[in-house]
Specification:
This protein has 323 residues and is an alpha/beta fold. The chain has a single domain, classed as Alpha-Beta Barrel (TIM Barrel), CATH 3.20.20.70. Helices cover 47% and strands 9% of the residues. A seven-stranded parallel β-sheet has the order 1-2-3-4-5-6-7. Helix 3 crosses helix 11, helix 4 packs across helix 12 and helix 5 packs parallel to helix 6.
């Protein structure tokens, strides 16, 4: 059975509350969502991607994108030293240019969260930790919750969970809902980012259903991908998720965020996503509280393009530190 939201802060309008009453109601709601017009969505995304932004607007967009980056290291060979180095980069992305904003967060595995917390203390940069058997999501719920509790106990401000794609694709929406709700409770005051792994969801209709399912279950942010499979983030999928949080705001008055992750490497890419945020969701979402880039390699190009805007000439890639 689906457990309805119980906290006053998550009180929902009648139609949405009814959707969380039981498995059948949840299924009826999700399958009653409008079908996605793939051609129209792709044309809209491609059209907005041609927008040209120059001069002061481009400099603003670059700084805004820097402030939205989640610097990430999620490798088996990660060390405390590597995490501390990444945190130094997060605090001061380009030494010698003190007006460059810090990034939004540093994302690590739970066992390295305490190291990141210590390195970032007082900086305003948040610590995010992946959890719930990232990136597969293949573990029993008690194991997933222990993973979350470990990260939160270490001081993580944000938790990035992965949904059970197998359960979702099999139509066990209630199970996925309950897992997200349980993880949300385990997060306490930490924000919850729900990774849909959209490249495995088979259709845009499924992405729309997964987005609404995550929002109904209490996710603070819906995230495209783990970055471990291809395709990861795409503009059409991000448009669809931005539509979901916009419609959620219209229905509930609550603001929820979006995080595209994986495959966003250039300043031109980042600006295309910022244009989508502005045009699809609205200018309220142009803040690190509500929009993030999960793209560590993006930062180097943003810094090079920023220098170009200030100095009028291109810098070589080796002039910008990547770690």
């Amino acid at each position: 059975m689906v457990t309805p939201p119980s906290t006053p802060a998550e009180a929902l309008p009648a139609e949405l509350a009814d959707a969380t009453r039981d498995d059948r109601s949840l299924r009826r709601f999700l399958h009653g969502l409008p079908g996605v017009d793939r051609v129209g969505l792709e044309q809209r995304a491609a059209g907005l991607a041609t927008r040209s932004i120059k001069k002061d607007a481009k400099r603003w967009a670059i700084d805004t994108a820097i402030s939205m980056v989640d610097l990430t290291t999620l490798e088996g060979a990660d060390t405390e030293g590597k995490v501390r180095s990444l945190c130094a980069k997060a605090r001061r992305p380009e030494p010698g240019y003190p007006d460059v904003p810090p990034v939004a967060a540093v994302c690590v595995y739970p066992d390295l969260a305490a190291t990141a917390v210590a390195a970032l203390r007082g900086s305003g940069v948040r610590v995010a930790s992946v959890a719930t058997a990232f990136p597969s999501g293949r573990a029993a719920l008690p194991v997933k919750l222990a993973d979350v509790e470990h990260a939160v106990a270490a001081g993580a401000d944000e938790v990035d969970m992965v949904i059970d794609r197998g359960a979702f694709l099999a139509g066990r929406y209630g199970q996925v809902f309950e897992e997200i709700r349980a993880v949300k409770r385990a997060c306490g005051d930490a924000h919850l980012k729900v990774i849909l792994e959209t490249g495995e969801l088979a259709s845009l209709d499924a992405v729309r259903r997964a987005s609404w399912l995550a929002l109904l279950a209490g996710g603070d942010v819906i995230k495209t991908s783990t970055g471990k499979i291809s395709p990861a983030a795409t503009l059409p999928v991000t448009h669809l998720m931005l539509q979901a949080v916009r419609d959620w705001r219209d229905a509930t008055g609550q603001l929820r965020g979006v995080k595209p992750a994986g495959g966003i490497r250039t300043t031109k890419d980042a600006i295309r996503y910022l244009v989508a945020v502005h045009e699809v969701a609205g200018p309220e979402w142009l803040t690190p509280e509500l929009f993030r880039f999960g793209a560590s390699s993006l930062l180097g190009d943003l810094l090079m393009q920023r220098r170009t805007q200030l100095e009028g000439r291109y810098s070589a890639a080796h002039h910008v530190a990547v770690d």
